[in-house]
Amino acid sequence: MKIRRSNRLVDITRYLLEHPHKLVSLKHFSENYGAAKSSISEDLSIVKKTMAEFGIGKVDTVPGASGGAFFAPRYSKANAERVIADLVELIADPSRLLPGGYVYLSDLLGRPEILREVGQLIATQYIDTDVDVIMTVETKGIPLAQSVAMYLNKPFVIVRNSSHITEGSTVSVNYVSGSSKRIKKMELSRRTLKQGANVVIIDDFLKGGGTMKGMQSLIKEFDAHLVGMNVFAEGQFDGERLVSGVTSLLKVTAGPDDSLTAQAGNFLTQVFTEEGNE
């Protein structure tokens, strides 16, 4: 059955959005819609232009018999600024301040619409980076890591505070908490991370950096490579953090009168260069 171009454009867009970072052959679309490959190429050109204009992502076409279309989520700087500004407004509420300088984020990281936008936002940073695995620790950052993994089309692994019998044999490391200075332990199943894998660490909140440092140690134990670290928000910390090079969407600061100030983190300056501001 032959399908009209307007219908094809809608379904092609849907398929690409649901299969990011995957090369889809022209033959796949041609057979599905009963259209010539030349017509599909024209459709893809329209989709590519539209996604670029709205700052959603980029569509690359690969020529040749084994070629096709490849969609990668990429937020424009304008879209990134909009998302971060909305988050700043949501977080700047003194009632979110918790003892120890932490901030309550569970309600935000449980909202699908926020996870979708933040997942695509962080995935934008790694659009041209070879990533194999997303890593997080068993905290509130799990949904965030899962969202990033979905938009990068990569698996994610969860570092545990204690071993589970269903995990099989594990590798464990001891690390020092950046805030409490206590020694803790984290573990990761031997089957979840391959030697030489390129890893991105995702967490919900950064304070002293002890948890991040522990995950870095685990990555070294597996002879894998760290390619980036991202957090939803970073808090203030008196002293020197145990890690550097972490990209944050938000930065929150507690005042002496228990007030809470939120502002954009370093994501915009880290990701968008002068050449890539469009």
Automatic annotation (TrEMBL):
The keyword rRNA-binding does not apply. Residues 4-73 form the Bacterial purine repressor N-terminal domain. Signal peptide: none annotated. The keyword DNA-binding applies. GO terms for biological process: negative regulation of DNA-templated transcription; negative regulation of purine nucleobase metabolic process. SUPFAM superfamilies: PRTase-like, Winged helix' DNA-binding domain. GO terms for molecular function: DNA binding. Keywords: DNA-binding, Transcription, Transcription regulation. Residues 111-242 form the Phosphoribosyltransferase domain. PANTHER family: HYPOXANTHINE/GUANINE PHOSPHORIBOSYLTRANSFERASE (PTHR43864), PUR OPERON REPRESSOR (PTHR43864:SF2). Homodimer. Belongs to the purine/pyrimidine phosphoribosyltransferase family. PurR subfamily. This is Pur operon repressor.
